[in-house]
What does this fold into?
Amino acid sequence: MEDQQRTVKKATRREVAHRIFSFEIDETTVEERGNEFPGEEATSFSDQSKIPNYVITPTGLRVNRVLLVGKLISMPKQIGEKDMWKFEVRDSLGKVFVLTPNFRSEIVNYVKSIGPNDVPRVIFLTGKIRTYRPDETRFYISIRPEVLCNSTQELHHYWLVQAAKLLLRRLECLEELAKMEPESIENLMAIGFTRSEAEAAFRAKKYYGIDIERIARYREKAVEALRIVMGEEVEETPEESRGAESEFEAEISELEAEVGDEERTLYEMIKSYKREGVVMDELVELTGMEPEKIEDIALSLIEKGLVDEPEPSRYRAVGSEEEDEEEF
It folds into this structure.
């Protein structure tokens, strides 16, 4: 019985969906295949075929899944005769390519429902990274969506703030590693970084080196994202960018309060899962909030009649079943 429970638990675990800007995806050149969860080994040939692809980004993230809220900027185009579609999504700083699987009917139906008057539109997606290397000099990355639905400009701004905060944190860790002697994960953790942040910094150094120019350029991009959220024109010099970082970090909390209205954000995420609803673990992963905080917000939404709880720790937007039928 214990082995069966362990198997079930293992089967339901999922990779973290990273909030990462398109420009970092564009500059990613390293991929690897490995066990989905560190310390677990494939035990048969069939297991090997299920081992996921990862990419290692220039700031050291080991990515299999991403979470993106951006703008659909082109009409989806069908690929061949199969129900596979491709389109581009902008995250305000660049674009990523999305290729839909033909075996996910809810995603195919959503894409087919998009007309010329629906573009551009803000969309929410989580999906898996897919790579294509036609030769030694070319390397392409696309996203295969698992969840794809309409979203809001407000949620896009919330995503920009979160992605910028995470990127600035990784850059800070890389800078500390560059001047650290002796270098170690434990020493980075001793000055306040998490183990995952420290490990990412070491991966970045291993595969890309610590490129000071790249760090400065990425910092400029993070600040640019925050300027977009604040409604400012983005026109700055590299010297201004570094000084502006402190200014924006001081205002991040205020931005989250204004743009990332957590109750509205959580409601939009729950609503995006349509009739099946979404479980607590997935909401923790998507929002980065503590389970206790999600419970408090969900209770408020339930009291307002916006959300119900069809089973313990599974939340669903009220009326989502009817909306599902109308939309698809």
